[in-house]
Amino acid sequence: MEIKEKITAQLPEYRERVRKLVKENGDVKVGDVSIAQVYGGARGVRMLVTDISYVDPDVGIRLRGYTISAIWKISSSGRHFLPKLYWAVKRGSAIRSTACP
To answer: Which GO terms describe its molecular function (predicted)?
Structure first.
């Protein structure tokens, strides 16, 4: 199955989960924001929902839960690193040397 088909198959469940969350909790406040935070690059403000990546304060960027160095190690010491990085972001599943084209 192609990556696009795998992602497309996951969309209905994701959309339903988001629709339900907004319907049931749309009025819930998630925090306060100061003018300094707005002009300071929104540091410390949780305002973006993503399950793809985030910046871990201890280890840096994580993609689908993996650190860049973990993806590097999984990809046979850098062999085919960029395709495996792309695979992790697009597919959202474990990256194995045999799973990535």
So the answer is: acyltransferase activity, acyl groups converted into alkyl on transfer
